[in-house]
Amino acid sequence: MKIVIQRVSEASVTINEVKVANIKNGLLILLGIVNEDAQEDIDFLVRKIANLRIFNDENDMMNKSLLDIDGEVIVVSQFTLQASTKKGNRPSYIKAAKPDVAIPLYENFVKSLEKELHKKVQTGEFGADMKVALLNDGPVTIIIDSKNKE
């Protein structure tokens, strides 16, 4: 499981000209899933997301977590995070999980994050053509791969 975390001042997801998610201070999370992903990947990422100290404290130091600031979250499924660009110029998405595997993991990821944060997590729509808008704060953008815990 691979995620891109973006600290945002605001973010939204629009599908067919309808805004389906909208947050202010918090995180926009792009989530890419592979067939080998499981609950332990979800658990690792959810704990990391909730406790990652990437929000500024009163001294403008990144010392506060999403839990500390009671921040909001949007999670967007993004199979293109699993792209392989090793050969040629056309990315291969062969590693990305198919919907029958990815949808239950995506839904479980969102539910697990809601449980960890004790609040509703907004989402896009799996497989939809989405327009994602954000105002990246910092900018702070972090990539985490649950298979490569660095």
CATH fold name, please?
Answer: D-tyrosyl-trna(Tyr) Deacylase, Chain: A
**What's the CATH C level?**
Alpha Beta
Quickly count the domains.
Answer: 1
Mean pLDDT: 96
Helix count, per DSSP?
3
CATH homologous superfamily - what is it? D-tyrosyl-tRNA(Tyr) deacylase
The level of helicity is 10-25%
Structural class: alpha/beta
CATH architecture: 3-Layer(bba) Sandwich
Number of strand elements? 8
The helix-strand sequence is EEEHEEHEHEE
How would you sum up the global shape? globular
Main sheet makeup: 6 strands, mixed
Estimate what percentage of residues fall within beta strands.
Answer: 35-45%
Distance between the termini: 14 Å
- The radius of gyration is 15 Å
Low-confidence stretches: none
Descriptive labels:
D-tyrosyl-trna(Tyr) Deacylase, Chain: A; 3 helices; two-stranded antiparallel ribbon; 150 residues; alpha/beta; six-stranded mixed beta sheet; 8 strands; 24% helix
